[in-house]
């Protein structure tokens, strides 16, 4: 299978993760969520505007991939001084190692100016605080096979497949239990052998092509979210 795109991490599907900072009476409310394309990223911005319609700024950044060779990156300062909000937020997303990710930081102005350096620090730390909390999945191209098993044998065979490092990504219970298996490219022969051994030759894995598959990952992310109020 030539030209396999490299794997990458992205936020797990679900509602936005939120994080809030208050600096010199200004509130910074960050949302971070999955965005698989530009339209979804802009929907997150629209949702923040709708949730906080009286806020002065809704700054944003996103990186969308969708399996592309070159991810699309965008950012917006939304009225803040140029380079003090969107770009620092984009730098946080880049540093997270994730793609298909969007961030919005809404600011309620507290009446005290923070200066350019203070704004960069505040927007960076608000975005980082939310990004740190985001549950992640790893997305990668994997080969797929299907195997049909009698219901009485399905649980035992599934356990043996998982012990062998073969992921079961879908199960269809009908007249028989139909399992969709995912594994790294080039491992079809090993999967065939594991299925044959687990079923004593009674079942055979059949190729189902390849597709993007998500698996959960645990990432130890440490982000400094302390803000120097004097900046």
Descriptive keywords:
elongated, five-stranded antiparallel beta sheet, 2 domains, 5 helices, Alpha-Beta Plaits, alpha+beta, Ribosomal Protein S5, domain 2, 231 residues, 10 strands, disordered C terminus
Q: Fill in the CATH topology of the largest domain.
A: Ribosomal Protein S5, domain 2
By oligomeric state, this entry counts as single chain
The N- to C-terminal Cα distance equals 53 Å
The SS-based structural class is alpha+beta
User: What is the beta-strand fraction?
Assistant: 35-45%
Characterize this entry briefly:
Belongs to the IMPACT family. The protein is an alpha+beta fold and 231 residues long.
Describe the structure.
The protein has two domains: about 130 residues, 2-Layer Sandwich (Ribosomal Protein S5, domain 2); about 80 residues, 2-Layer Sandwich (Alpha-Beta Plaits), CATH 3.30.70.240. The chain is of the alpha+beta class and about 230 residues long. The C terminus is likely disordered. The chain starts with 7 loop residues before the first strand and ends in a 14-residue tail after the last strand. Strands 1, 7, 8, 9 and 10 form a five-stranded antiparallel beta sheet that branches. Strands 2-3-6-4-5 form a five-stranded antiparallel beta sheet, with helices on both faces.
